Each structure stands twice: as C-alpha cells, then as structure tokens.
Amino acid sequence: MATIRFTVNGKTRDVETEPDRPLLEVLREDLGLTGTKYGCGEGQCGACTVLLDGQPVLGCLTPAQAAHGHEVVTIEGLARDGALHPVQQAFLDEGAMQCGYCTPGMILRAVALLGAHPHPTDAQIVQGLNGNVCRCNDYHRIHAAVRRAAAAAGKKA
Amino acid sequence: MPAFNRREFFELAGTGLLIVAAPLASEAQRGGGAASLGARLHIGEDGFIAVLSGKVEEGQGALTELAMVAAEELRVPVGRIRIVMADTDRTPNDGITAGSSTTPRTVPQVHRAAAAARSLLLMGASRKFGVEAAALEVRDGAVAHGGRTYGYADLARSPEIAAAYKDALPEGTEVTPAKDWQTLGKPQVRLDARDLVTGAHLFPSDIVRPGMLYGRVLRPPAYGATLESVDLGPAQKLPGVKTVREGEFVGCAAPTSYAARKALEAISSTARWKTVEQPSSDGLFEYLKQHASREDRTPARERGSVARGLAEAGVRLKATYQVAYIQHAPMEPRAAVAEWQNGRLTVWTGTSNPLGVRQALAAAFGLGTDKVRVVAPHFGGGFGGKHTGEAALEAARLAKEAGCPVAVHWTRAEEFMWAYFRPAALIEVEAGLDGNHVISSWDFVNYNSGAAAIDTPYRIPNVRVRYVPSDSPLRIGSYRVLAATANNFAREAFTDELAHAAGQDPLEFRLAHLDNDRIKNVLQAAAGKFGWKERRKDKRQPSRGIGLACGTEKNSVVAACCEVEVDRQTGSPRVIEVVEAFECGAILNPANMKAQVQGAIGMGLGAVLREEIRFKDGRLLNGSFAKYRVPRFQDMPKLEVILLDRKDLVPAGGGETPIVAIAPAVANAVFDATGKRVRTMPVRVPTA
Q: Which ranges in chain B are annotated with CATH 3.30.365.10?
C-alpha cells in the first residue's frame, strides 16, 4: 500500500492504495467519481479517459502511482459553478449522445483536442477522437459537437 | 392528500412529488400496461407530471419520446414531465423493451392516459369556472377562462381527480391527431442529456450501496468445461474477501475491484477443469448445415409452386450466403448491484427485461415475485444484447452469502465470451427468371439465424421461404432487428444478381417487382438524393462501385445507396458515402430518429465490413476490442439520412429496421467495383 497524493478536480486528495491499482478504480471506488467509465480495461475504447496535467490518459491503464503529485481532471470537474464547460455545452446542444456511456471520455478527449488544436480540421477531429468508441455509433453528432465547441470558442476569443 | 394508503406512494427524488405505486404484482402479471390511470400518470401538487413506464432507457430514446407524448396531450413544456421507468415495484407492465415495441404499444397508452388526465382537469376546471369544458383553454399547465387560470397542480388536488386515479383508463379517449401536434414531430434533445454530459447520471455500474462489496465470478476457460476441483482456501486468507461456492458457481467479493480480482486469481489458479470438444468457427457453416433441424419440423411457407416455377424458368441462379456470429458489445458491460433486506431482494441492473429478470431471480432463490424488485436505470447500450440477467443473478448470490450488498461488473472479456451472440446464418437461395426477365420463382432457406423478414417484398408468383433451426455452437439471442439483417442481406444481394442476369438496372429491376408503395418511396428518395441514375452512367475509377438495397420490417421501410472503394491488394472495401431513406410512419422525435438511423448505419457497417466472432476449442479467438474491431470515427462515411415523415400513418418504432439495408448495399457496390459477388458478412473480397 502507498499514499497517493494528487489533485482531483482542484482538490488535494490522499488515497491509501496499492500503487499499481488502475487510476480508474481509485477515482470510481475510493473517490466516488463514477463519471469515468470502464469500457474495456485494455486502452482500446477511451471510456475511462481523464486529464492528467491537462493531457488525456486512459484511466484503466494508468496506475494510481502515476498520478502522485499530479493534477487529474475528471468529467465531474469540468463545469464551473454550475456552468457547463463549453465542450459539455456543445454536446448538450447538439444532443451528441445516445446511451451516453462513452460521453464523459469523449468530452475529455475533445477538451484535450481543442486545447491542442483550437481550430481543428475535420481530419484532426477524426484522428483526435479515433481512440474513443461510441457503440451507438453517434459519431456524426459527436463530430458536430466538437466543431460547435470550436466555433463557440472562436467567437468568444 | 388523496385517500390512498400511505405505502402505496413513493417520493420521486428531487421533485417532492407523490405518485401512486404500480398495481399489485398480480395485476401487473396480466400485462398490457397500466391497470389504472394512477399507475401510469400522476399530476403533482408542484406542477410536475409523472409518467410511469416499465420500458427501459438504453440510449434508444424511449424516455424522451414518452415525455414528449405526455407533454403533447397535457399541453405543457417537455421539461415539466418526469419519467419513472423500469422499476418492477413501481412501474406498470409494459413488457420487454425490444422489437421496436415502445412506439407502437407503449406510446399509445401514454397518449391515452395523458389525454384522459387532460379531460379530467378540464372537467374539474369547468366545475370551478362554472362554464362548459369546451369554452376553456388549456395551455402551459393551466386551464384558462376569461383572464383567470387554474394550474394543474391546483386542479389535481380535487377529490374527484384523486378518485379517478384508481379507475381504469377510459376506452376510446381521443388523442391529438398528428397534424395538430405541437411538441411531437419536433426535434427534442434527450431530457437526460445534462446528466450525461456532467457524469452525474448513475448507470447500473455506477450504483453504490452502503457496505457494498465488489464481486467476481469464476468462469470456465472454455465453453462446456466443467469444474472438477477448486480450493477457496488461498482466497479466503486475503483480507476482507468473502468466497462463495454453490456447485458450479464459484465467486468472491471484496472491498475493491482490485482486491476481488486478486481473490479471483487466487481461486482461478487452483481450479481444475474438464473440457469437452467444441466446434470452431472454421467449418462453422458445414456444421450448421449438418446439425440442422429435420425438415418435417420446419414447414416452409409456400405460395404457388417453386418446383414448377424453377422448372419453367428461362434463367436459374443459385447462391449461398454466410453471416458470422457477432457481438453486441455495448459500451457498458453487464452490471448489477444486489441487496437483501428482510428476505426481500432488490437488484439494480442493466437489462431490457426487468420483469423477466425478476422472474429469474424469484425462481433461482425460491421467492415469490413480490419479494424481488428489479430496477433498470438508464444503461449503457443493449442493442438486443441485454434481455437476460446474468449479472443480477450472480450479484444476488454473492450478496446473499456475503450478507451485504454486492456489485458485479462484467469485464469486457466476460461480456464478449459469456453474453450471447447474434446467430450466424447460412442462407441458400435459388431463383428463376421467366422469358420477360421477371422473377418467377424464389426458394429461400435460412439455417440457424431466424425468420425475421424472411419473406420477399417482391411480386413473385412462386415463393417458398423456410427457417431451419440448427444446433448453434455459441449461445445465441436477440440482436437489433434479429435475423432481418441476414435475411435482407441474402435477399438483396441475390436480387442484385438477378437484376444483373436480367440485364437491368438494380433500381429499375426492384421497382418493377414492388407493389409496396412505401418501399418504392424510400428507394426513390435514396436513389434520387444519391444521384443513382446519373452515377450509374458516370465512368468511375476502376476500384470504386455503387450499390443499393432496400427492405421492410416492423412496419417500417428503408433503402440505402452507397459508394465503396476496394483496395485491390487487400481486397478490403472502404465505404465512402451512404444515402439512406427511412420511413416509419409519423415521426415522434426527428432528432432521435435521425440519430437512430445514423447509428444503425454505423453499426451495420461494422457487421458488413469487419465484425466476426472467431472461436476454437470452446474459446474466443478475438474476444476483445483490440481484436474485434468495432466502427470508429475513421470508419464513418459521408452520410446523408432522409426521413420520410408520414403524418397519415401510425408511428412505428425506428431503432432497428434502419440497420438492414446497408450490408447488402455495400455487397452490391463491391460487385460493381470488382465484378466479384460478395456472399459473406463480413465481406471477404477474393483478391487476384
């Protein structure tokens, strides 16, 4: 067992845990942050995507100890004072989900993509989100939501 | 407070709304929906309206659709409706959520209940105003007359309305005709979207109960393997771990998933198994033919005489089609939490069939169904793959022995191997053309996969269709539109072969054989938008081809056109563009309808291009997302969806049928590109 000290959604957290335990399980089971989902456990579907120091990582393949001393953002940490993050808002406005199970991972992946490419091309959106699976195949609306979020950010700037 | 026994009520979280609990189990067992108005709908004293349905939400959009229906009839914004779904203690028996049945069967009931409630409110208001109900205006949750209004919440307090909740739904209540719809027929984002984008929604795998442990179950290494011995000792020594063995069932529960996994590894390493010989996916189709049910048990449906038709035909063609086993692979694998309290069992789980799972739990534990409650929160996808309650049963067993609530979350590997599959199909078809290039006979047999959409919509004088069950090597079950995909694939691909043999354009050939105007309409809509006639004449790059197909099932019709590019080296096709037209009567929520069609096309592309379960010696060879490639962003073609809205037709469900046209359209486009017929799903184009 080890004490993992890290920042989760802006708050410092100490977790007593096995260092090799997946970050996904620490977030869900120890911290009650169930918005991050298990999809495959082998890094193939992106449902467990969270941001580690602003970079997207797969919670199922990231050992808890890798988060020690770092900053993690989950889907629960995106909204500010009840106001949705622009990417969340774009997914909502576009209605870009069916079952919604992949949605948190998609949104975090899109946040990271737009951080790197504020004005992504269609090809960059496809490439950036290709690691995230939506089995409902709602890809067209998700793609539209990412474009909408980029456009909204462009207007604001 | 209406005169109900206190325990007949429960509080709807967050609204302070009191609503009437479902009818007694004995009433619910009769099926056919709510026994009383109050079991279906309740107008809260806070102005919110609760609608109860035994249907589940799994992404298909039932929740929002039912809310829109109630909002339409009660003339309130959709946001004023609270939907309570899939709780066997509380919601009426609306049957399993399958077969595109919510729209044709549950929607009319909610329509009628909401319309009946509106007329009750009008009657109440009429008494208060002292004027005829016909003189009153209903808008935005209130009844108005001459500048004065009564809110629904005020009216709902009257003893007459409270009493009416106990009454059966009046027959023949008039509902708003489609042409007058204000809410229905307009695009509506799903009502739970905000909870989905914030991660606040609790899926079945997110449910946590006080003192809950995480459970795991020991699985055989192969299908048909039986447990010879196992030693639970090493696992029992691990801190906080509880183990269970009941015959072949072996499981464990621990304070974390991690600890449960370690405990299961400890158990697994001691387990000795006896395996038996199992068929493999190589040679599957010979196996299915060899193990087919006897002919006398599977009577054919025949019109005219196929024997005579074929004997007299000018041209005879024959082909065999093979469709692989595939997995639903919903994003959320099976999950359940079980909790025992005072001899009563509550299970939260992702299933399309809460009443069926309740029955299975009651049977497994020797309980009356009144001692079991199954709740199915909006779960992470089903596609027909979650009609059963495996995780529910496992969680309940573990919870019973552990003496505390237990969650069982299947891993992806478990979901691949131990959920059920869409059945593989072997289809043999033979047909003849007469001297006028008209199809004169059609002989079609499906082995193993099912009879859905097995008949042909084309006008053919001599037709014989037959479904022959076989001894499926893999566990099979429902899948979006069942065998209609396989049957439609074979029929539409073969019809293309006949059109080619007749020297006719595939579109014209189909239209000439169709009497069903609805199919003709979608064919023409898709072909028109795609530019079929022009693109047939265009000279294409040699590796590219176009194809089309149509189909009908569940009172809806679909047609798709597509363009593909085939890699000459690998033979693998890429779909560049799809235009699909779909019609299922009057459309309730166009936004959701479009998403269902787009999603069905994407899912259908997976099955025609790549998806195939391979197995050997009772083990899956590709039971993971790394090896079983489902469609991703990069696989999506340019896509155009045309929805034909028929306000004059009763709404049919639309979540399934849109999947059936894409596979044969792709196969036909591959032929156009390569001159080679593709008779397998997934497609395998012969190279060189």
A: 6-194, 205-274+334-409, 284-325+421-681
- Spans in chain B with pLDDT lower than 50: 1-30
Task: Give pLDDT < 50 ranges for chain A.
Answer: none
Give the contacts of B520 (CB within 8 A, at least 6 positions apart).
B511, B514
The pTM score is 0.95
Residue B384 in tokens: 């027909």
Q: Which residue in B has a C-alpha nearest to residue A138's C-alpha? A: B599
The Cα angle at residue B35 between residues B31 and B38, in degrees rounded to 5:
135
Nearest to A42 among B198, B381, B624 (CB): B624
* SS3 (DSSP) at B175: coil
Domains of chain A listed by start with CATH number:
2-77 (3.10.20.30), 86-156 (1.10.150.120)
Tell me what pLDDT residue B319 has.
Answer: 98
Fold of B284-325+421-681: Aldehyde Oxidoreductase; domain 4 (3.30.365)
Contacts of A140 in chain B (CB under 8 A): 598, 636, 639
Token pair for B122: 């009008």
Residues of B in Cβ contact (< 8 Å) with A144: none
Give residue B31's pLDDT. 52
A and B: number of Cβ contacts within 8 A: 178
Interface predicted TM-score of the whole assembly (ipTM), two decimals = 0.98
Are B633 and A125 an interchain contact pair (Cβ–Cβ within 8 Å)?
yes
Determine how β-strand B142-145 pairs with β-strand B148-151.
Answer: antiparallel
Residue of chain A whose alpha carbon sits nearest to that of B335 = A38
Beta strands in B69-132 (DSSP E): 81-85
Q: How far apart are CA A52 and CA B309, in angstroms?
A: 69
A101 touches B: beta carbon within 8 Å: yes
CB < 8 Å to A95, chain B: 189-190, 193, 591, 595
Q: State in Å, rounded, how far the first CA of chain B is from the last one.
A: 79
Asked if CATH classification 3.30.365.10 holds for the domain at B6-194, the reply, yes or no, is yes
pLDDT tens for A19-52 read 999 999 999 999 999 999 999 999 999 999 999 9
Q: CB of A42 within 8 Å of any CB in chain B? A: yes
Q: How far apart are CA B161 and CA A80, in angstroms?
A: 44
Under an 8 A CB cutoff, do A135 and B330 touch?
Answer: yes
* Chain B nearest-CA residue for A145: B197
How close, in Å, is residue A155 to chain B by CA atoms? Answer: 22
Alpha carbons B596 and B478: distance in angstroms, whole number? 18
Q: Which CATH number fits domain B205-274+334-409: 3.30.365.10, 3.40.605.10, 3.40.1160.10, 3.10.20.310?
A: 3.30.365.10
Kindly report, residue by residue over B461-483, the tens digit of the pLDDT.
999 999 999 999 999 999 999 99
Q: Inter-chain contact B598–A141, Cβ cutoff 8 Å?
A: yes
A103 touches chain B (CB under 8 A): yes
Q: What is the pLDDT of residue B161?
A: 79
Best of A94, A140, A141, A148 to mutate (most B CBs within 10 Å, chain B): A140
In B291-410, alpha helices (H)? 306-312, 354-365, 390-402
Nearest 5 degrees, angle CA B410-CA B381-CA A72? Answer: 70
Is the CB of A92 less than 8 angstroms away from the CB of B201? Answer: no
Task: For residue B637, say if its preceding peptide bond is cis, omega within 30 degrees of 0.
Answer: no
Rounded to 5 degrees, what angle do the CA atoms B9, B75, B651 make? Answer: 90
Distance CA B651, CA B555 (A): 9
Token pair of B686 as six digits: 């012969």
A118 CA to chain B: closest CA distance, Å? 19
Q: How far is B57 from chain A (nearest CA, A)?
A: 8
Paired with A8 in beta bridges are A11, A72
* List of residues 6+ apart from A113 with CB closer than 8 A: A120, A124, A125, A128, A129, A146
